[in-house]
Amino acid sequence: MLTVNAIAAPSATGALVRTKIERRDVGPRDVLIEIRYAGICHSDIHTVRGEWGEVPYPLTVGHEIVGQVTEVGAEVTKHAVGDRVGVGCMVNSCRECDNCKAGLENYCLKGNTGTYAAKDRDGTITQGGYSTHVVVDEDFVLRVPESIPVEAAAPLLCAGITLYSPLARWNAGPGKKVAIVGMGGLGHMGVKIAAAMGAEVTVLSQTLSKQEDGLRFGAQHYYATSDPATFEQLANSFDLIVNTVSAELDINAYLSLLRLDGTLVNVGAPPQPLPIQVFTLFGNRRSFAGSSIGGIAETQEMLDFCAERGIAPEIEVIDADAVNDAYERVLKSDVRYRFVIDVDSLR
Ligand code: NAP
Ligand code: ZN
Ligand code: ZN
After folding, report:
1. pLDDT averaged over every residue in the chain
2. What distance in angstroms lies between residue 294's CA and the mean position of ligand 1's atoms?
């Protein structure tokens, strides 16, 4: 066992505090990673606050992890000491079900093993990336290209793949009108990736306060959803809408913006249900879909895509002690556009 520094939530309401957690010994197929940076995903906040259900406390969250390999098990072939690597939202899966065999470990029929708050193969509860080291099976460790700035790479492991996967699946590309709803951590990556794929990108944000940024990230159009005229103006116009909003919203108003055979993919995960008017789906033969992160192979594809296209998240680097303030800012939609913890501040 390796005892390492971390920050953990003591309860659903308590502030995150410095602590120590244990990592398992490096097994034959494991990789020991010295974490350099860990992104703060809104899912971390939903989780520690118990918004998605009960979780075991104390809990260390964080599933946007980038660091360096410092030790490998005897049978490891994919990674070597010194490699720059990443870990996202899952650290294992059954590897036997149809979905795992298809490379869709994120949709493992037995449930993938989450990077935190999940039961690990040794019966312990997984603990996430707000810590100095992590031990992960080599198959769930990604290669992070050196051309991506190391501090900016971490958010790709969740925010990046969560947008890349539906944009690729629903063919965002030349001739397609794509709207991204909410320009936070996920949304701003959606704008950059959809634009790089060649789509005509529109941002639907609560206000116009981030318009200049949105256009710089590659959007052609930017609208405020607080203005009812937006919904009249854009009715029946998009092939694809990706909703990244972390809170309840009037999903029918957004569905009405889809043109014939258009799809709204929901990746935002508010704790409350989103009631759908079926008549809104009837019009224009619209589809409502969901998407959850991406498989390991697709995550590697996304990292390589971002490296080739020079795409990186916009980040604000913080020390570990600033995490609680960062959470408050994320909750106020005051994030530009992903907080990343400098894990050196935990050593
Ligand atoms: P985030 O950085 O907080 O971004 C969410 C954005 O939604 C905000 O920046 C804001 O954008 C908009 N928003 C927030 N509250 C709103 C409200 N009440 N009404 C309208 N718009 C609102 O969060 P994130 O890290 O990108 O995560 C977004 C959601 O995706 C979370 O629920 C998270 O759990 C979920 N998630 C899902 C997956 C998956 O695999 N499906 C993966 C990761 C995260 P504007 O300021 O531009 O309006
Ligand atoms: Zn996440
Ligand atoms: Zn499986």
Report:
1. 98
2. 18
d(CA 88, CA 159) in angstroms, rounded, equals 9
Average of per-residue pLDDT across 282-288:
98
The structure's pTM equals: 0.98
**Please, which residues have CB within 8 angstroms of residue 29's CB and are 6 or more apart in sequence?**
73, 75, 76, 137, 138, 139
Per-residue pLDDT tens digits for 96-127: 999 999 999 999 999 999 999 999 978 999 99
Whats the size of the chain, residue-wise? 347
In the numeric block, which tokens belong to residue 255? 């569905």
Q: Structure tokens of 19?
A: 């602590």
Nearest atom, ligand 1, residue 338 CA: 2
At 121 the pLDDT is 79
Ligand 1 binding site (Cβ under 6 Å of any ligand atom): 41-43, 46, 158-159, 162, 182-187, 205-206, 244-247, 249, 267-270, 291-293, 330, 333, 335
Ligand 2 center to residue 282 CA distance, Å? 32
Residue nearest to atom 13 of ligand 1 (CA): 245
Helices (H), ranges, the chain: 42-48, 98-101, 150-153, 159-169, 185-196, 211-216, 229-233, 251-255, 278-282, 296-309, 323-331
Closest CA to 136 of 192, 175, 83: 83
